[in-house]
Design brief:
There is one protein chain. With about 80 residues, the protein is mainly α. The chain has one domain. The protein is built from four helices and no strands. The protein is elongated. The termini are far apart.
Length: about 80
C-alpha cells in the first residue's frame, strides 16, 4: 500500500491518495469502491505471495493481521510423598 501511495505521489496526486483512501470529509465517496478494491487486491497479493514463498510469510502475516497461533503447555509433575529421603 505504501508503494502504491508513493507511486500516486510521484504522479502528482496530492497526499499520495491519502485523502481518497480515508474519504476525507466524505468528499471522495465516489472513489470508495475503487479504494476498497485496491486495498483488497494488495492484501490478496500479499497473502498469496506469502503462501507461495514469494514474499516473507512472517512479514505478510503481520501486515495483514494474520497470526499463527501456537499452544504451549508445560506440565510439572511433583511426587506425592517427597523424593524418598
Amino acid at each position: 500500500m505504501e508503494g502504491f501511495k508513493l507511486h500516486l505521489w510521484d504522479k502528482g496526486i496530492a497526499d499520495g491518495g491519502r485523502d481518497y483512501f480515508s474519504n476525507k470529509g466524505g468528499a471522495y465517496e465516489e472513489f470508495s469502491a475503487v479504494c476498497s478494491r485496491i486495498k483488497e487486491s494488495i492484501r490478496a497479493d500479499q497473502i498469496k505471495g506469502g503462501m507461495a514463498g514469494i514474499y516473507n510469510p512472517s512479514i505478510t502475516q503481520r501486515l495483514n493481521g494474520l497470526v499463527e497461533k501456537q499452544e504451549t503447555s508445560i506440565h510439572i509433575e511433583q511426587p506425592l510423598f517427597g523424593d524418598g529421603v
